[in-house]
Amino acid sequence: MKKKTIAIDMDGVLADVESQIIDHYNKAYGTNLTKEGIQGLSEEEAFKERELLFEILNKDNFFRTLPVMPDAVESVRELQKNFEIFIVSAATEFPISLAEKVAWLGEHFPFIKWENIVLCGSKRIINTDYLIDDHCKNLDYCMGKPIMFTAFHNINQTHHLRVNNWKEAVAVLNETL
């Protein structure tokens, strides 16, 4: 019997990009943004200095040093027992991130085979049974069942099934078996 498939986004789902951006942004711009303070804001509202944000996202080692989301490693291992897992990241927007993301996955998720890592531009081509992502721009085009992973910028979005953390994601997906 063929396993169902799950595509999992990296930034904001497996990797805590919010904390990393806030830390770099505060240091570079002299602000004191917090995760709590940007809840419900769009990325443009939270990080008003767009040029600075793009500089940060294009810095060497930015993506390589992202913290892992709580329970992500254990949860993906658990899901791998019953699902085929693909890691899918719209990485080509920041070309420097390509090698860094592969190295990050190798360090934190070495049990994910290289052929199950998809670094792309648009996720509209991804055809899996489920997509876990924090951006509606990806979930809205999901060919399978979209699952929105909570992030500051999607708190006010309600048109997709939401999970707030990895334990909830595992519970929701295990219910589908």
UniProtKB/TrEMBL annotation:
InterPro entries: 5'(3')-deoxyribonucleotidase, HAD-like_sf, HAD_sf. It holds the Pfam family NT5C. One of its GO terms (molecular function) is 5'-nucleotidase activity. Gene3D superfamilies: Deoxyribonucleotidase, domain 2 (1.10.40.40), HAD superfamily/HAD-like (3.40.50.1000). The active site is at D9, D11. GO terms for biological process: pyrimidine deoxyribonucleotide catabolic process. Belongs to the 5'(3')-deoxyribonucleotidase family. This is 5 nucleotidase, deoxy, cytosolic type C. It comes from Flavobacterium johnsoniae (strain ATCC 17061 / DSM 2064 / JCM 8514 / BCRC 14874 / CCUG 350202 / NBRC 14942 / NCIMB 11054 / UW101).
